[in-house]
Design brief:
The structure holds two protein chains of two kinds.
Chain A: E1 2-4, H1 5-8, H2 18-27, E2 31-39, E3 46-56, E4 64-69, E5 76-80, E6 90-94, E7 109-111, E8 114-116, E9 119-120, E10 155-162, H3 173-184, E11 208-211, E12 219-226, H4 235-243, H5 251-263, E13 268-271, E14 279-284, E15 290-292, E16 298-300, E17 306-310, E18 313-317, E19 335-341, H6 344-354, H7 359-364, H8 370-387, E20 391-392, E21 397-399, E22 408-412, H9 413-420, H10 426-435, E23 439-443, E24 446-450, H11 462-474, H12 493-507, E25 511-513, E26 518-519, H13 523-526, E27 551-552, H14 557-569, E28 575-585, E29 598-608, H15 626-639, E30 645-648, E31 655-665, E32 668-676, H16 678-683, E33 689-695, H17 696-702, E34 718-725, H18 731-742, E35 746-757, E36 760-769, H19 778-794, E37 798-799
Parallel strand pairs in A: 11-14, 25-28
Antiparallel strand pairs in A: 1-10, 2-10, 3-4, 3-6, 4-5, 6-9, 7-8, 12-19, 12-20, 12-21, 13-19, 14-17, 15-16, 17-18, 22-24, 23-24, 26-27, 28-29, 29-33, 30-31, 31-32, 32-33, 34-36, 34-37, 35-36
Helix pairs in contact in A: 4-5, 5-8, 9-11, 10-11, 12-15, 12-17, 18-19
Chain B: H1 2-18, H2 22-33, H3 38-45, H4 51-90, H5 110-124, E1 128-129, E2 135-136, H6 138-141, E3 167-168, H7 174-182, E4 187-196, E5 207-217, H8 222-237, E6 243-250, E7 253-262, E8 281-290, H9 292-297, E9 309-316, H10 317-325, H11 338-341
Parallel strand pairs in B: 1-4
Antiparallel strand pairs in B: 2-3, 4-5, 5-9, 6-7, 7-8, 8-9
Helix pairs in contact in B: 1-2, 1-4, 2-4, 3-4, 5-8, 5-10
Classes of the chains: A alpha+beta, B alpha+beta.
Chain lengths: ~800, ~350
């Protein structure tokens, strides 16, 4: 909300700089986005002038050359283009050095050959009106050289406030004045409605109003005026509207806007002569009902929208926008000023459904009090009679009435201290609450606080009152303490596993990325995932930012490949990237789950090009392949002491069918490792890519949190190497058989060489034997070795001769 | 016989002196001291000599053998030293060539690094770390957090909905409720995680990261919130930082405050500063005392607002990182350009 300080100061003037006022407001809960100047600057350059002479410009039909007495003795030569300028006028003059509202500084100039020492001003040039019909002609009683700022409101600072949604009362000049009063401890002038009595609501002769749905319209008030003379508003009013961001239109419309800005209560003015039947009905819209609003747009009303209709049908969307039919026009002479109260949530719903937000709806949607309608009527009554020459038609209409009796809330002194952590003297609590308009009486253990109507929806509980005390009397003296009962804390095992896994990859030269959770529905196609596969059970968004972001990623591969493509296209020659984050699938098992969808923490790597960079010694390092990725996933799992193996499997259609495997820990599938299918790689403009992905949640479940100590020094191990002909068996089968036959005495078995000749594959296997309680004898070791060789023989693996 | 021994000794000494390589010397050793050489044979034949000759011949032969062995050893050492010098000379390399290719360097994403730093600060303060679901029910995301049924954040213009009616959580706050449902007080937790809002500009991305904080215990005060966040601010932004609380409005805290930390970039005297725009303060998070209406949703889990009080806060990790590292457009954090990422972590 724009707060012109000259308007504020009519009600509360803190005698502080605009910056200091803004800071104080910010520290008491009213944020100030920025401060700007409305109007002109270098005020001493703006003075009252007397036009002494006025001649036709020799070289321009539309210009005049004038001499103007600006009070300095020597008349100023000023070229003026206004049609109404004439000798003898008293005018507003900007002298060289003046800064105009758009920021330009006036200089001496020559206009078509004639020197000009300033400008004779029209009201729009000062931003105190929007007329550019001609220069302003001022009161002849003013002396030449008088500072213009003493005569006209030609400049004010404006605070642009950000009002929180719980404080619709601060969407008004007087509401902010109340805050300034409380925050800056300066006097508050009486409210603009104070002392104005509307009298008894006895109705208005000839006008009938019916509220059919009072549940959505708690109050509807109307005051009628006749003999209204439509004209422009006085400068003081126009300046205030403009500084507050409103365009002046005519006196009646300006009054409605002025009252809203001052009191917070939206106002509507009907041309009563054009209200058909002089009858208004306030009701819910019928299903699908249509209405044409002031802006000439036909709109279909949503359910529960409230409308106002006259004898010829709907004229306004209640609380949001009026209709064209009974709009104020230049020949309006009778006016019905309407102020009503609507249910905020219903206004918001209607406004959202219509995508139509107005100054009025943005106030109503936050919930206004019925009492405010009467306050607004009082201010409007005074302005209508003063500024339009109107006569009030006796009586007024008041349907509904005041809101419920104000709540009285007990504010316990002990509770204030215990919630805030600082003692606020009861006298201080009392004074800030009173300044904000709360009623306060003493109670045994604190204060009984009566909530004013304009805070009815916001302050309903003790905690809400404590907030008022806090923001005005506690925050600036609040100490910094720590809770005394803090427990110790460390990361959970799963959290430590995630960090360790990430660190393993970082330590091996893999760069982390942060992929998008959003993915394109086409991802499944690009990854060649068949219909019905689990990776198709994706979470779909109803309102994505774009169709390309319409699902949540079911795998980390998409965003990793996107990142690889992005970087390779920008000159990277080798990439090792990982992503560590959530992937999402729909639950498909029909069971009840604690979370709405199946989320797990994935860790995935893509490798493109060599993992190690080239050098003069190895100018062409081998590109990362299946085994590079397998070593990396092994580094992660071995660090975490998870027993794992890569098992041939063809379950990932985006992987090379012959160069991919399931990463298994026993019968738990942790993920995959493999080279990317060439067609998938091509879809991302990539060539050879190796990758793995594992479920870190499963890894954490399997990783032993507390390792068990094993003695390695007392009884040294016995080492033995075997050279084996595989007979077509895989390395995993050979090692599996060795381990199975080796029993407890075999501590370790690993492949350390492989060679192939004439399709015969040989593997060299290193064995380590040990027992925890003795040094093994040769006989014992040989017995195990023979058992291993026998078992290998059963699957066709023989010892090399 | 003794003459012969002296002759062998003389020949052998000459041969040892002449040998110029270890290999040649080895041949000399074999020639004069090897199994089939003359001197060892003489020694083996001593027992067959007449007894009166045995002593003299044996002694002379043994002396010569020892002398020769010593001469051989000395000559070996000398030759090896020479040869080592020659080999070292031959091994000379161009030490100005580059070393091996640098080991590839991996880094954490700046958001992960920042999150971990913040987590570690709060771990030290006694806060455990919890995680929660990103696809959340409307109940946990809005209803239980005291958002009115018409709260604008619920609108489909602001919040992502799934086709089955859940939301992508708009903040980490739903885990406040889940955490209180899972554990009775006292509760000291932070909840880092990914959150979503339908926004995209230089300071907003439709996905971003928050860290929620929640402390519920007997006698937790607003001053405790300030002290906790002061510790956090000093750990993350430097030891000279101060914090101030500004009143604000959030549906699920009362009183609610925004927290500013004093600018770490400037002298804080109002002079131009690209980080704080001359205000001296940086807004870092929203917070407040847990609203009684929130406790009402977990009253059955031991949370009676007359018994326990709590504070809650929520900060954006992107914002913290952007402030700390001067990142002008947080959208670049999700472009995943390695040239950007490798500057951090």
């Amino acid at each position: 909300m724009k707060l012109p300080l000259n308007w504020l100061f009519e009600y509360a003037e803190p005698y502080m700089t605009p910056r200091a006022i803004a800071d104080r407001l910010a520290l008491t809960g009213t944020e100030v986005d920025r401060i700007h100047r409305h109007g002109v600057d270098e005020l001493e350059a703006f003075v009252v002038g007397k036009v002494l002479t006025c001649e036709q410009h020799p070289n321009a039909d539309r210009l005049r050359v004038t001499t103007v007495d600006v009070g300095t003795g020597e008349p100023s030569h000023i070229v003026c283009g206004a049609p109404n300028v004439a000798a003898g006028q008293t005018v507003a003059v900007a002298k060289p050095g003046a800064i105009m509202p758009d920021g330009t500084r006036l200089k001496k100039a020559k206009l078509r050959g004639e020197p000009s020492e300033g400008m004779i001003l029209a009201e729009d040039e000062l931003e105190i009106g929007n007329s550019h019909a001609g220069i302003m002609v001022l009161d002849d009683a003013l002396e030449a050289g008088t500072f213009l700022a003493e005569v006209l409101p030609i400049a004010t600072d404006v605070l642009e406030l950000e009002i929180t949604p719980n404080r619709p009362d601060c969407l008004s000049i007087y509401g902010v004045a109340r805050e300034v009063h409380a925050a800056c401890d300066v006097p508050l002038e009486p409210a603009p409605w104070a002392g104005i009595d509307l009298g008894e609501p006895t109705g208005i002769e000839g006008v009938s109003i019916e509220v059919r749905d009072p549940d959505l319209c708690p109050r509807f008030t109307a005051v009628a005026f006749e003999n209204v003379k439509i004209d422009t508003s006085p400068v003081w009013l126009k300046q205030r509207l403009m500084a507050a961001g409103q365009r002046p239109i005519n006196n009646v419309v300006d009054i409605t806007n002025y009252v809203m800005l001052l009191t917070g209560q939206p106002v509507h003015a009907f041309d009563l002569d054009r209200v058909a039947g002089r009858a208004l009905t306030i009701r819910r819209a019928t299903p699908g009902e249509r209405i044409t609003t002031l802006d000439d747009v036909e709109r279909t009303l949503p359910d529960d929208a409230m409308l106002i209709e006259d004898a010829e049908g709907p004229t306004s969307i209640a609380g949001i926008m009026g209709g064209a039919r009974s709009e104020i026009s230049d020949d309006t002479t009778t006016v019905l000023i309407e102020m009503a109260t609507w249910i905020g949530s219903n206004i918001l719903a209607t406004s959202n459904a219509l995508a139509l937000r107005t100054e009025a709806s943005s106030r109503f949607e936050k919930g206004l009090s019925p009492e405010a309608a009467v306050e607004g009527q009082a201010v409007a009554l005074e302005l209508m009679t003063q500024l339009t020459g109107a006569t009030r038609v006796p009586g007024w209409i008041d349907l509904g009435g005041d809101g419920p009796a104000p709540a009285v809330i007990r504010l316990r002194e002990a509770r204030v201290t215990s919630l805030l952590g600082v003692e606020v003297p009861r006298s201080k609590q009392r004074s800030v609450l009173k300044a904000l308009g709360f009623g306060v009486t003493d109670a045994e253990d604190g204060l009984d606080v009566t909530v004013p109507h304009w805070r009815r929806f916001d302050v309903t509980r003790e905690a809400d009152v404590i907030e008022e005390v806090a923001r005005l009397a506690a925050l600036d003296v609040l100490p910094s303490t720590l809770p005394t009962n803090r427990p110790g804390a460390q990361l959970s095992w799963t959290q430590r596993v995630v960090r360790r896994a990430e660190d393993v990859l970082v330590g091996r030269g893999v760069q982390e990325i942060a992929g998008w959770s959003f993915a394109s529905p086409s991802l499944a196609e690009r990854l060649r995932i068949p219909e019905g596969a689990p990776l198709r059970d994706v979470v779909v968004l109803e309102n994505p930012m774009s169709e390309e972001d319409a699902i949540l990623r079911p795998t980390l591969m998409g965003s990793l490949l996107d990142a690889a493509q992005h970087n390779l296209a920008r000159g990277a020659d080798r990439l090792a990237l990982f992503d560590s984050g959530t992937v999402y699938r729909r639950w498909t098992d029909g069971e009840a789950h604690a979370t709405p969808v199946n989320e797990h923490h994935g860790l995935a790597v893509v490798l493109a090009g060599p993992l190690d960079p080239p050098s003069w010694r190895t100018p062409k390092p081998a590109a990362a392949d299946f085994f590079t990725a397998k070593a990396l996933v092994g580094a992660v799992l071995d660090t975490l002491r998870v027993e794992w193996e890569a098992v041939p499997a063809g379950d990932w259609p985006f992987l090379h069918p012959g160069r991919s495997a399931a990463v298994m820990a026993g019968d738990v599938r942790l993920g995959f490792v493999g080279e990317l299918h060439p067609l998938v790689a091509r879809s991302w403009d990539l060539a050879d890519v190796a990758a793995f992905a594992i479920d870190l949640g499963k890894v954490a479940d399997l990783a032993p949190e507390v390792p068990v100590y094993r003695d390695v020094t007392t009884f040294p191990p016995v080492r033995l190497d075997l050279s084996l002909v595989t007979g077509g068996r895989s390395a995993a089968e050979v090692l599996g058989t060795v381990r199975g036959a080796g029993g407890k005495l075999l501590r370790d078995a690993s492949i350390f060489d492989r060679f192939e000749r004439d399709d015969v594959v040989s593997l060299a296997v290193h064995l380590q034997f040990a027992a925890p309680d003795r040094t093994l004898t040769d006989d014992e070791v040989n017995a195990v070795r023979d058992k291993i060789l026998a078992k290998l023989g059963e699957i066709g693996v023989t010892q090399r001769g | 016989m003794n003459d012969r021994i002296d002759q062998i000794a003389a020949e052998a000494r000459e041969a040892i002196a002449q040998a110029s390589t270890s290999d040649a010397l080895e041949q000399v050793r074999v020639q004069y001291l090897g199994r089939k050489a003359e001197l060892p044979q003489i020694l083996r034949g001593v027992s067959e000599l007449p007894p009166e000759q045995r002593g003299a011949v044996g002694k002379a032969a043994n002396v010569v053998r020892r002398d020769l062995e010593q001469a051989l050893n000395e000559r070996t050492e000398a030759l090896e030293a020479t040869e080592l010098d020659a080999r070292l000379e031959a091994d000379r390399i161009d030490v100005t060539l580059p070393g091996d290719a640098p080991q590839p360097v991996g880094r954490l994403h700046v958001l992960t690094q920042t999150r971990r730093e913040i987590e570690d600060v709060f771990l030290g303060l006694g806060f455990s770390v919890l995680q929660g679901p990103e696809v959340e029910t409307v109940y946990y995301n809005f209803d239980a957090l005291n958002h009115s049924p018409t709260h604008p954040a619920r609108a489909k213009t602001d919040t992502f909905y799934t086709t089955s009616g859940e939301v992508l959580r708009t903040h980490t706050s739903p885990m406040q409720i889940r955490a209180m449902e899972a554990s009775p007080p006292p509760l000291y937790v932070i909840i880092p995680g990914r959150v979503y809002r339908r926004d995209s500009d230089a300071t907003h991305t439709p996905q971003f990261h928050q860290i929620e904080g929640l402390a519920v215990d007997k006698g937790i005060t607003l001053a405790d919130l300030k002290g906790t966040l002061l510790d956090f601010s000093r750990a993350i932004f430097g030891p000279d930082r101060e914090v101030r609380l500004r009143p604000h409005f959030f549906p699920f805290t009362e009183p609610s405050v925004e927290v500013d930390v004093s600018c770490f970039n400037c002298k804080r005297d109002g002079s131009p500063c690209s980080v704080c725009k001359g205000t001296g303060w940086l807004e870092i998070l929203g917070s407040g005392m847990v609203d009684p209406n929130v406790f009402a949703h977990v009253a059955d889990h031991g949370y009676d607002p007359e018994e326990v009080q709590g504070f809650a806060f929520g900060m954006g990790i992107e914002r913290i990182a952007a402030l700390k590292y001067g990142i002008p457009d947080i959208r670049t954090l999700y472009t995943n350009d390695v040239r950007v990422l490798e500057q951090f972590g």
